[in-house]
Amino acid sequence: MLRVWLKVLIACILCFSFTSSAKESDLHELTISKLQSLRSTQAVTYEQVVQYYLNRIKALDPKLNSVVAIDPNAIAIAKQKDLIFNKGNATGMLFGVPILVKDNIDVAGLPTTVGAKALSQNIAKTDASIIAKLRKEGAIILGKTNLSEWANFKSMQSSSGFSAIGGQTRNPYNLQYTPCGSSSGSAVAVAADLTLIAIGTETDGSILCPASMTGIVGIKPTNYKISKRGIVPLAKSQDTAGPMARTVEDATLVYSAITDDISVSLTSNVDYKWLSLGLLNSMQSFYSEHMSALVETLDKFAIRGTKIYNHLPFEQRDVLMNAEMEVLMFEFQRDINEYLSKQSHLPVKNLEQLILFNKAHGDTKQDLLESANAFTDKDKYSLSQIIVQEFALQQLKKLQEKYKIDVFMAPTTGKPWKIDEVNGDSFTGSSTWLAAMIGGPAVTVPLQMIEGIPSGLTFFGLPGDDAKVLAVAAQFEKLVPARVPPAI
Description:
Blueprint: H1 2-21, H2 24-27, H3 32-40, H4 46-64, E1 67-70, H5 74-86, E2 98-102, H6 129-136, E3 140-145, E4 162-163, E5 167-168, H7 184-191, E6 197-202, H8 208-213, E7 217-220, E8 240-245, H9 248-259, E9 276-280, H10 291-303, E10 307-312, H11 317-341, H12 351-360, H13 367-374, H14 378-403, E11 407-411, H15 433-438, E12 442-450, E13 453-460, H16 466-479
Parallel strand pairs: 2-3, 2-6, 9-10, 9-11
Antiparallel strand pairs: 1-3, 4-5, 6-8, 7-8, 7-12, 11-13, 12-13
């Protein structure tokens, strides 16, 4: 009996020491390596870290609208992780790491709404494959993040980061400015330190653009690297999930956990003298705001022996963009109809019923949904698919072979814009389209501030070139440490 009492007393003392030694400053802008270092020295517990983020969500998110659901079991799971850790049985690359997940990915017991009223009661029965992998590696799922409704494929007048479920997500650097989309909530939550890591999804720019405009790192893996099971589709030929973090190291660690890609190493170093970087002429139309920072960056690489190939020719951009839209239209109708038909508990069973449901609830801003529902030309889709997947990929391969390019690069986005919920977004340029079309890897890293809003640089490559792209991004982050946390 005395031994039992002593064990309880020691546990209470340890608990008190954790509580008294944990400082908010220790947890601010936390990285995975720092979290595990603090935990190993008993400076904090996983429970305290989770509570820190829940407190910040409660205090800050009412004005950011980045989080739409909290897992009620998060604290209990964190306590369980602490017990496992104290027994010396902690395993997994992400043990005890808190993660928020975009609300188009299934997390068992939580709604998967895609921001839409019609899916407000779409409670997931099982975890998506990517969530199962995160849990296997020891991660703690905090909850779900807001997004652009239907992953920004609802209306040409949509405002990035707006959904019927979560409202308008706002940029933590300036609440009047866009966070970009559609993984807006995931990006804002990481940038505002409401979580250590977040998961987003991308079809064309939905990870890279919001990561760029909130000053964080976003990875779009090669499309075949991650299972799509349990993710509400937009267009399966281009859809993928990916990590969002404050450092390339953290994002790469999560990438490794969800892809099982052993070719990617956190300690990879780039030999600048053997490195060749390429910039495409079709991605230089929105360079004006980026030019000085881009030139400075290229100089830093060139001084170290890197070969820079500027203004590389890339043809038929407009043709490719039009073909991509036709691919997205056809696949959205096909894939959403298949998805909805399997959700017996929902009030809509296909895209046509979804459109009628929205109209019945006073939502008429859905021109993309209507266009997708009307796009039934399979032959035209097949031709567009060939143009997108083969013509774009072949051009990039030829450039890579001719100039021996290791990794391509471009500013991620153009000038930031203010939120306009009536007229929608005012995009000023993006480099995300080519990696999206060919299904290749891309990573955006903070480059500079424009009008007080962050802006990133994207590195991308051919499908399967993930290790090279991530290694170059990591070196860039060391050369140009440009992240500035928001003053929120």
